[in-house]
C-alpha cells in the first residue's frame, strides 16, 4: 500500500543525495539529480565531469538525457527534477528547453548557481514551478565536506 502513497520532496531529495554521494566517492563535485514522473524515479544522474573529461557532464544534464531516452520524448512537462545544488546557468537552460514541470533543489550555490547571473528573471520555463531548500543542510554539508580538504 505504501507504494501507492505519494512520496515527499524529502524522499526524492534523499535519492538525489545518494547520487551526490556516488559523485563524492568518485572524486567528482558531489551533485546528484533524479527525475520523477507520477511518483516514480525514471532517471538518475551525478556529476561525471572528471570521469568523462566533459564540462557539460553535470548531474542534471545526465539525468535529463536519461529521462528523455526513457520516455522517448524531448519534453518533460509532467516531470520533477530533484537536484542537490542550485542549477548552474547551463543546466537551467537545459531545463528550460526540456519544459520540465517542476524543479526542486537543496542547497543554494552563491558561486556557480544560475542566480549569480540571472538575478532578476528566472531562466526556467514560465510554466515550471520551483521549490528551493529541500534538505538544504544535508546537501550543503556534502559540498563542504568535499571542498574542505581542497582549501
Average pLDDT over all residues: 90
Intertermini distance: 48 Å
> What pattern of helices and strands is seen along the backbone?
HEEHHEHEEH
Read across the widest sheet, the strand sequence of neighbours is: 2-1-3-4-5
- The level of helicity is 25-40%
pLDDT below 50 for ≥5 consecutive residues: which ranges? none
Number of strands: 5
Q: Write down the Rg.
A: 14 Å
Number of helices: 5
Give a short account of the largest sheet.
5 strands, mixed
Shape: globular
Question: Could you tell me the strand content as a percent range?
Answer: 15-25%
What class, by secondary structure content?
alpha/beta
Describe the protein.
It is a single chain. The chain is globular and about 40 Å long. A 5-stranded mixed sheet has the order 2-1-3-4-5. The chain has 151 residues and is of the alpha/beta class. It is built from 5 helices and 5 strands; from the N terminus they run αββααβαββα.
What would a concise description of this structure say?
By secondary structure, the protein is α/β, with parallel strands linked by helices. The protein is about 35% helix and about 20% strand. It has a 5-stranded mixed sheet with strand order 2-1-3-4-5.
Question: What brief labels describe this structure?
Answer:
151 residues, alpha/beta, single chain, 37% helix
List the helices and strands and how they pair.
Blueprint: H1 9-25, E1 32-37, E2 40-46, H2 49-52, H3 59-71, E3 79-85, H4 89-98, E4 102-107, E5 129-132, H5 136-147
Parallel strand pairs: 3-4, 4-5
Antiparallel strand pairs: 1-2, 1-3
Helix pairs in contact: 1-5
Amino acid at each position: 500500500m505504501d507504494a501507492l502513497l505519494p512520496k515527499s520532496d524529502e524522499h526524492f531529495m534523499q535519492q538525489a543525495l545518494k547520487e551526490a554521494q556516488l559523485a563524492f566517492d568518485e572524486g567528482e563535485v558531489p551533485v546528484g539529480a533524479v527525475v520523477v514522473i507520477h511518483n516514480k524515479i525514471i532517471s538518475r544522474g551525478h556529476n561525471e565531469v572528471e570521469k568523462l573529461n566533459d564540462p557539460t557532464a553535470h548531474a542534471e544534464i545526465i539525468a535529463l538525457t536519461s529521462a528523455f531516452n526513457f520516455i522517448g520524448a524531448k519534453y518533460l512537462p509532467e516531470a520533477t527534477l530533484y537536484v542537490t545544488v542550485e542549477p548552474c546557468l547551463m543546466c537551467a537552460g537545459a531545463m528550460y528547453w526540456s519544459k520540465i514541470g517542476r524543479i526542486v533543489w537543496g542547497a543554494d550555490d552563491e558561486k556557480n548557481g544560475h542566480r549569480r547571473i540571472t538575478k532578476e528573471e528566472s531562466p526556467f520555463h514560465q510554466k515550471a514551478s520551483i521549490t528551493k531548500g529541500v534538505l538544504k543542510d544535508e546537501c550543503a554539508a556534502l559540498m563542504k565536506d568535499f571542498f574542505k580538504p581542497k582549501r
